[in-house]
Batch of 4 targets.
Target 1
Amino acid sequence: MPRGPRWRWCWRKRGPGRPPKPRILAFMPPSVAFLPHVEGELIEGEPVVIMPDELEALRLVYLEGLTQREASERMGISRGTLWRLLDSGRRKLVRALVERRPIVLSSER
């Protein structure tokens, strides 16, 4: 598990409605891009952007082996919200792999 300060991260919602609840992250990922290539040639395409809360949910459940309930408690969100983050993150990763698109880890929405 990463050591250091915990981050409170929240994307900005513009417009009417309830403001989003901040998520507690164990680490803030730097902005990184993973670019696919075949035989040394980079493949161009529209990037798939993985948000920090999606990455944290994937890390807690699949890397650390926590249950969805334990992971949601660590992030300070409901289990349903965690499930949606996992579903969104999985779909984005699979889309990037199948369609050979770049994967970008970003801290901005």
Target 2
Amino acid sequence: MSAVEEIDMKEVQRQLAKVVDPEIGMPIVEMNLIDKLEAVDGVVNIEYHATTPYCPPIFALKISQDMKNYALQVKGVKDVKVMVKGHYLADAVNKQVNKPQAPPQQPASSPK
């Protein structure tokens, strides 16, 4: 038995179907924007393209973050990497959505 829990990719797809393009109002899955979807060692990798190369960056970032948040809800998913391709600010969007999350800060204990 492997130490990594198997990820139900159909469940990942169901979660991604909840992501809606905020400008167009349609689910990204219905618009066939996802180009690649795979899971390797508990990490889901998603590659997609925006509806246009000049999609407003705030929308591209929202779509990317929504994909990450929904995919993280699937049992066995440890992390999600999202890459938008063909967008004029793809590097900036990808860097922002995939930046490491800081661990929660523990409150300093007060001296007794």
Target 3
Amino acid sequence: MLSQRVIETLVGLFLLAAILALMALAFKVSGLTTFFKQDGYNVTAAFEDIGQLKVRGSVKIAGVTVGEVTGIMIDPASYKAVVTLRINSTVKDIPNDSSASILTAGLLGDNYIAITPMYGTVFLKNGDAIEETHSAMILEKLIGQFLFSIGHPGDKATDPSTDTADKGAKK
């Protein structure tokens, strides 16, 4: 029979291996590590407004994750946000005339980039740029535009008591 000391050592080693496995799993799921970096290629896309898009955001085609956002910077000449996308090496046939849009997962979810493939016969490769882009829809801007378009009760354009044409017709 094994001595008590050997059993305790084996249990300790087993617990240490289990903790290390759980840590590796947590890092893999969270995306906070580069231990498991996938091969791929980088493409860029310039947007007028990226909303709340963040580094490590998803890049999807038809709802399937095919990469991630690896960098965001501002172009000093055009003042557009230039986003660097890392596309997995398993996805090689993205036509170079494809478009990229920034969408929101759900009503208030995270932003991600959706690539819509087109019909070109030349495919994107490392260092290429996606020319056709569609910026994020910012909910606050849409609400502001809606409120501005309907005006407010004190506005002369919407207040019937200030309409001079109606006053002349009533006399």
Target 4
Amino acid sequence: MTDSRPCQLHPQSMCPAFGSLRVLTRLEGSHPVMATDTGCLYGLTFVTHFYGARKSILAAHLGTAELMAGEVVENTRAAIEVAAQEPGCQLIPVVSLCVAETAGLPEEMLPTRVGDAEVVLVRVPAYAIHSHPEAKDVALAALLRRLGEPEGGERDAKTVVLLGEVFPADPLAIDGLLRRIGVEATIALPGRSIDDMKRAARAGALAPLHPFYKETMAAFRSWDIPIVGGAPVGMSGTVSWLKAIGSLLRLDLEQVNRVAEEERAQAEAIIKAQPLAGRVIVSGYEGTELAYARLLAEAGAEVPYVSTSIAADPLTLPDEMWLRNNGTKEIVYRKSLEDDVAALDKYPPDLVLGTTPFCAIAKERGIPAVYFTNQLASRPLFLSGGMAATIGFIQQMINRSERYEWIQTFFEEEDFVDQGEVPLG
């Protein structure tokens, strides 16, 4: 008997390690060295530049001959020496992938510092990491454990670390709102500044905007820095989040409540002005799918099904419980394409927010579909401003259903199928 269950031994996507490289290459003064075979090197450097790294990645030549001769360590050390000569080099992350010969790269045989640059081994066993967001977590945690400076100064009691790679305008908007309730400074991680990583270890609180930074949160716990649950998404989520920060940092609760209620009123006005109507399926591998689904449901959409590539975590529980109490019937972690297609059959939607292959299947059926990463993760999400941007875009997409149905009908025309030609008239 054939087992029809989808394979869960590997991610149904490209190598997740590019998430780590995305974090490491964007740091100013960072010059990564990759320890892996030529195939992995080619694929990951291509994708990294596609995502705007604007930086070369150095690598030892590790072909079959070098791997068989046991020259991995020597060649990697040589690449580190070259990286250290790059102008302004302050950090050399050595990325060891899951190639058998390099996955066990002995850290004690690598230098810890070359010239002015710290050398940090970042182990990214991509076969054991199921999504590129979680690979970001691995890289960031490795850097923080090495670079964080919890000692040597007083704790910045009213500084909040915002944890999550988000739309560039979001941290600015959140910072402005937090300053209104008494927060003195925010640090956004992962970011471009090595100094921010050092300062983060003395912050007053950590606020994970995304729920998948498990190793990074463990580093902050080791520094006795408290963690704020939830995220400022939607109406109720934002109010709860602001009040939690105010309580944790012992801010003026009257001022916190005033600002929170003002933000609630703005969100209510946005929903009243442009309420959503329609059924939406939300699926992706960014790790933010539950938060987006909650925002859409709060704005009036029906969201029967949500899936994500990340694993279940205590930080996802508030959004999960809220969704289940507000009409969501299925929430799938570590999802597969097969899970999503089954949901498409079970809950025929007006719009799909999904991965590339899932969107393709939906479009074949004449259903409007949007690639989650490029179209949603590249837009504001947080606070009332993010809500306004998201709701307007989603309603526009739902309103395109007739166009998608026309396209489907066009390509199903009998003459078109038989003749293999596009009718011009």
